[in-house]
Amino acid sequence: MIVKNVGTADRILRATFGILFIALAILRTFGSFWSIIFLVLALEVLLVAAIGFSPLYGY
């Protein structure tokens, strides 16, 4: 069982930023290289928002 260490407000912010990063990746506002970076960031923050666990946070 995964222990949740991300609160509700943090999950909402992460989901919002994930959607923003996906939009930036699709629109290629800053070029192709940055689109890939934004897509990877979007996947990470949306995954953390979905499962509620971040390995970067301490216990």
Concise structural overview:
This protein is an all-alpha fold and 59 residues long. It has helices at residues 8-27, 32-51.
Q: Report the major sheet.
A: none
- Helix count from the secondary structure assignment: 2
Rounded mean pLDDT score? 91
Q: List unreliable stretches of 5+ residues.
A: none
**Distance N terminus to C terminus?**
15 Å
Share in β-strands:
under 5%
User: Which bin fits the share of residues in helices?
Assistant: 55-70%
How would you explain this protein's 3D organization?
It is a single chain. The chain is mainly alpha-helical. 68% of the residues lie in helices and 0% in strands. It contains 2 helices and no strands. Helix 1 (8-27) packs antiparallel against helix 2 (32-51). The longest helix is centred in the first third of the chain and has 20 residues, at 8-27. The radius of gyration is 13 Å and the shape is elongated. The model has no long low-confidence stretch (mean pLDDT 91).
